[in-house]
Design a protein that fits this description.
Blueprint lengths: L6 H8 L14 E2 L7 E9 L4 E8 L8 E4 L3 E7 L1 E4 L11 E4 L4 E2 L1 E4 L4 E7 L2 E5 L5 E5 L1 H14 L10
Antiparallel strand pairs: 1-2, 2-3, 3-10, 4-8, 4-11, 5-7, 5-10, 6-9, 11-12
Length: about 160
């Protein structure tokens, strides 16, 4: 006669613990430089998949360079302001959910007079291009983790463990 572990006990034994993250305790980290007007708050770094979740804030009238997402989909939920891609007809406003397939190339711009705040769930690499189509920066989970860790160290802010 074999003994079997019921599903609840099995899950409790092997599952990762849940976690509630107070994003108000995480600083806005400049994605590139302070002058760019683009920041992020990391929420989750999944080192097993290369996926990361963060909240982005773009100052009104700002944007970022033309770029491509490789290695995974992008999911976005707009919390504040409006934004769009120059290459698309839609405009994301509060309550808009955006899905982007891997390989999508676009240029994000923030229209109007209000800062944009959006929750992003990303995987893989973001490749930023110059006007000639050359890759100028590869942004991924490790780039974001390093930016977060360096910023916290520089400003004497405790680093939250956001990794799995």
């Amino acid at each position: 006669m074999s003994t079997t572990l019921d599903l609840n006990a099995f899950t409790e034994k092997y599952n990762l613990p849940d976690q509630a993250i107070n994003v108000n305790e995480i600083p806005w980290v400049p994605t590139f430089t302070e002058a760019d007007g683009v920041w992020f708050k990391p929420v989750r770094f999944d080192l097993t998949t290369g996926n990361w979740i963060h909240i982005s804030k773009f100052k009104a009238g700002k944007g970022n360079a033309r770029h491509r997402h490789t290695g995974g989909t992008v999911l976005a939920y707009t919390l504040q302001g409006t934004w769009r891609y120059l290459e698309r007809d839609w405009v994301a406003k509060p309550g808009t959910f955006v899905y982007e397939p891997p390989g999508d190339i676009h240029t994000l711009v923030v229209d109007g007079g209000e800062d944009m705040i959006t929750l992003f769930n990303l995987g893989g690499v973001i490749e930023y291009f110059d006007q000639d189509g050359n890759v100028t920066l590869q942004d991924d989970i490790f780039y974001r983790m390093k930016k977060y860790f360096d910023y916290c160290e520089e400003h004497n802010i405790p680093v939250k463990d956001l990794t799995i």
